[in-house]
Write a structure and sequence with these properties.
The complex is a heterodimer of chains A (213) and B (580). Chain A has two domains: 40 residues; 165 residues, no CATH class. In chain A, 45% of the residues lie in helices and 11% in strands. Chain A contains eight helices and seven strands. The longest helix of chain A is centred in the first third of the chain and has 36 residues. Chain B folds into two domains: 265 residues, no CATH class; 183 residues. Chain B contains 20 helices and four strands. With 580 residues, chain B is an all-alpha fold. Chain B is globular and about 80 Å long. In chain B, the strands form two sheets. In chain B, strands 1-2 form a two-stranded antiparallel ribbon. The interface between A and B is large, with 108 and 126 residues.
């Protein structure tokens, strides 16, 4: 009995000490260190233009206007919403915004709903980009990412949108090409990962070139 | 392809120093950082009333392990229930409901990290820290402690003590997990993972709309999530979100953090077993010493090789399957030249996604950088299979313990074939050990298959299945395989936050964890009492490559016998219909 009590006391005390060290001390220490060494990243890498935050470097955004580059489809619309006058929040497509979320529809490859969604998106894309052939649309542009927050599209998906963007924005394709190149990241050391284009950064530069920002 | 090979080569280089360091910690040897850590440990032992010099029998060790875990479960459960208090709660999160709290706390204590909630809306920062981050440290340390005790039993310097649980637990946290977490956490912040206590931000986009962006102490959770092979994400979509995993470099950091310690365990095992042999036999045998023997120890090398073979086979199948794309989308006219990109991030592509998927399920982490529910049928079968095997490295030491059970089984089968008494690591394997081994190996498929049968046989849970056809069975199967293997990844489409799923997966996780650990410690306890037998001409050598190959076959045959029928009804049937 005495041994049992002793063991219980050890278990309780060790639990409390470790809870404080691992659960409180460690995250606070890391917060302190990172706010000193990497203040920008620790704060979420927010991008500010003219003093207001317009997005975050690593979080994708949904764009709907023809003059901007479009991101991949997202089940949660990249948490982009508008507020109506009665204070309710809606996604761009009119459905209700249920609060911050991440993820995808989780459609299995054999799920008919996946094919339906891709076909609908494809028709919409072709209607807005009449010069594009169906088979030329890159895979990533019409498939949803795992997070629903993918900040990138592939360089091919960027290229295929340029004629539409040029027409709608009035910018030349050459200047758009330069903007895309400035915001393209290659593979790490030329080997790891994939080549990516950051959609939000491209669109901020487009807006600045158009003079709307 | 090249990047996968390079990633693995880098791993094989990095695992060596880490393995050596962990071995020094496990064996209680001197390390360069002792002057600092001895003091920290001293303070913790003093407060906890732990006598660091006392030793435990396997029974007391197991009792201390289970008892301490029970205490942690109790305290964590209380925090989850009262998390609505305005402390570290800028987003105004409400308290968690009972059955979900039960599931969550079991899930994190057993190192499973199956999540039936979404981090964005389900947990306050207080819970993320005091429950989730805390549990990630202690559940990993508990697993490693059990593993070290198991190895001590097998390596057998003493007949009755396997070490002190509290000492092992604290030493692993202070000397391995905490220092690695601070360095790795800073690296992640450098790459863009947020680490702050402010509430979620709403920004004004350039199209005139608003966007909500998640904040919080993400990096702290992120690093221990991988180091401890835990896997539960800060956000719903886990490491696929660019907030938890913003760049390819952060992806590699996370990948290596989850691979290093389980690999290091095998090295620790090899070296601790070798220590014993060194004591016994004098240097005559040291003439031919290859590099791999020096690094892994003889016995460790064959185990590591067997795990490596299983891993590479799985990885190849997964990478191949994902590269093929989805024929249903190809029919709809969408080019599949990039492979199956639904559910995957552009910055990771097919290669890093397949690698991460295979790794997270082999090392039983459960973190995901792409959605497993949307993997192609065969690509999704690999993570499921590796959780069913539960021996391909495996997280927090438990994989090694399982693999050693298979080694005992392999020795036994070979012993029957050549007509000798089976021996492993110089000890006779007899009736008692074989019964316990068989029991331990059978629990895992029993939990998976019985619960899956219950789930598809009743109405309550069929409502949770969200994909039609054969994939629906895969969703159920994956959920229980993930629970029983203490992995925690999911086919996330499953609508699993209901009483039925919360309770059944909670039970699968609990039994999958503690029954195995206690039985494994019992095997070690039984073996350590035996005398070492001398090697003879008839002894089956377990330190050769051919034994590694035998081990791989034993694992696959066992898996085929138990799981092939159900895999044929799930992923294989889906593959055949999709490609028909």
């Amino acid at each position: 009995m005495k041994e049992f009590l002793h063991g219980t006391r050890q278990a309780v005390l060790v639990t409390v000490v470790l809870m404080l060290i691992c659960g409180l001390l460690f995250p606070c220490l890391l917060t302190g260190l990172s706010s000193v060494i990497f203040p920008h990243q620790a704060g979420g890498s927010l991008i500010t233009v003219n003093g207001t935050a317009v997005g975050a470097e690593h979080v994708g955004q949904e764009f709907t206007q023809d003059c901007y580059m479009w991101s991949r489809p997202s089940a949660y619309h990249y948490n982009v919403y508008t507020e109506s006058e009665d204070g309710r929040k809606y996604y761009n497509d009119g459905t209700e915004f249920g609060g911050l979320a991440s993820g995808s529809n989780n459609y299995a490859p054999s799920n008919p709903a996946l094919v339906e969604r891709v076909e609908a998106d494809m028709e919409a894309f072709l209607a807005k980009n009449p010069d594009v052939e169906r088979g030329d649309i890159p895979t990533d542009l019409l498939t949803a990412s795992g997070s629903g927050l993918d900040p990138h599209i592939s360089p091919e998906s960027a290229q295929i949108q340029l004629p539409r963007i040029a027409q709608a924005s009035g910018l030349s394709e050459e200047s758009l090409q330069e903007i895309v190149e400035r915001n393209t990241t290659g593979k790490l050391l030329g080997v790891f990962g994939e080549k990516t284009v950051n959609v939000l950064k491209v669109n901020i530069e487009i807006a600045q070139a158009m003079g709307t920002l | 392809m090249l990047q996968i090979i390079l990633t693995i080569i880098l791993y094989l280089i990095m695992v060596v120093p880490v393995g050596t360091y962990v071995y020094h910690i496990a064996a209680g040897k001197h390390t360069f950082a002792d002057p600092v850590f001895d003091r920290v440990d001293g303070v913790i032992f003093k407060i906890g009333g732990v006598d660091p010099d006392s030793r435990m029998s396997w029974k007391r060790y197991a009792a201390a392990l289970v008892g301490t875990n029970a205490m942690m479960i109790l305290m964590g459960y209380i925090v989850l229930r009262i998390q609505s208090i305005p402390l570290f709660n800028p987003n105004g999160i409400e308290g968690m409901e009972e059955s979900l709290s039960f599931n969550t706390i079991i899930s994190f204590m057993t190192n499973t990290n199956l999540q039936h909630y979404s981090g964005e809306s389900g947990l306050s920062y207080l819970s993320q820290m005091l429950v989730i981050i805390f549990m990630m440290f202690v559940s990993a340390a508990t697993g490693y402690a059990a593993c070290i005790a198991f190895i001590r039993g097998l390596a057998g310097k003493s007949k009755d003590n396997v070490g002190n649980f509290f000492v092992d637990l604290v030493r692993i946290i202070t000397r391995v997990l905490l220092p690695f977490s601070i360095v790795g956490g800073l690296l992640l912040v450098w790459q863009g993972v947020p680490q702050n206590f402010s509430g979620n931000v709403a920004v004004d986009t350039i199209e005139g709309t608003k966007q909500a962006i998640a904040m919080g102490p993400v990096a702290a959770l992120e690093i221990i999530k991988h180091l401890g092979t835990n896997g539960g994400g800060f956000l719903g979509a886990n490491s696929s979100t660019p907030i938890e995993n913003p760049t390819i470099l952060s992806n590699l950091i996370e990948l290596y953090s989850m691979m290093l310690l389980p690999g290091a365990c095998v090295i620790t095992f090899g070296k601790m077993v070798r220590d014993r042999k060194k004591l016994k036999e004098q240097p005559e045998k040291t003439a031919h010493k290859s590099l791999s023997v020096w690094v892994y120890g003889r016995e460790g090398r064959s185990i590591f090789a067997a795990m490596g073979i299983l891993f590479v086979i799985g990885l190849s199948v997964c990478f191949w399957a994902e590269s093929q794309g989805n024929p249903a989308l190809a029919d709809a006219g969408l080019s599949q030249s990039m492979g199956s990109m639904e559910g995957k991030e552009v910055r990771f592509g097919i290669a890093q996604s397949a690698l991460f998927t295979t790794t997270t399920t082999s090392f039983t982490t459960g973190t995901v950088n792409n959605m497993h529910d949307t993997l192609t049928p065969l690509g999704g079968m690999i993570p499921m299979l590796h959780m069913m095997l539960n021996v391909v490295f495996g997280g927090k030491g438990v994989g090694l313990m399982n693999m050693i059970l298979y080694a005992i089984l392999a020795v036994f089968i070979c012993g029957l074939m050549i007509g000798r008494t089976p021996e492993y690591l110089g000890k006779k394997i007899e009736g008692r050990e074989m019964k316990l081994t068989a029991l331990c190996i059978i629990i895992h498929p029993l939990l998976i298959l019985a619960f899956s049968a219950l789930a598809v046989g009743t109405q309550a849970d069929q409502a949770g299945i969200t994909n039609p056809g054969f994939h629906g069975l895969s969703q159920v199967l994956y959920e229980y395989a993930s629970s029983a293997a203490n992995n925690g990844s999911g086919f996330e489409g499953l609508a699993d936050n209901t009483l039925f799923w919360n309770i059944t997966t909670g039970l699968a996780m609990f039994f999958g964890r503690y029954l195995s650990i206690v039985i494994q410690l019992a095997i070690a306890g039984s073996l350590m009492k035996k005398r070492f037998v001398n090697e003879s001409a008839g002894t089956l050598h377990t330190d050769t490559m051919s034994f590694a190959v035998i081990l791989v076959f034993v694992v696959y045959i066992f898996a085929a016998l138990t799981f092939f029928p159900v895999l044929a009804l799930g992923p294989i049937a889906e593959h055949l219909t999709l490609w028909a």
